[in-house]
Amino acid sequence: MPRVASPAAEFVGKRIDAHRRERGLTHDQLAAATGIDSSNLRAYMSGRAMPNVQSLVRISSVLEVALGELLDGLTPELFGAQDDRHA
Predict the structure, then answer these.
(1) Model confidence, pTM
(2) What is the DSSP letter of 86?
């Protein structure tokens, strides 16, 4: 299944990338430190994929930021139309 960018994934990816840059880490350094495949990490930072909770925790730990810092400002609207059955 091809990865498709979404507003929510892009939002989180930009937050991860900004903190990575602040720490002076390359993509590959962050990948090695988190144990996340570099291609997956690049997909997260480009907004083509949304990291799962485990990956977010690993990333926030390496970047030394609170998990909430990566998610602060994320809203349901960024995920697009929701099925009414899950409301």
Answers:
(1) 0.85
(2) G
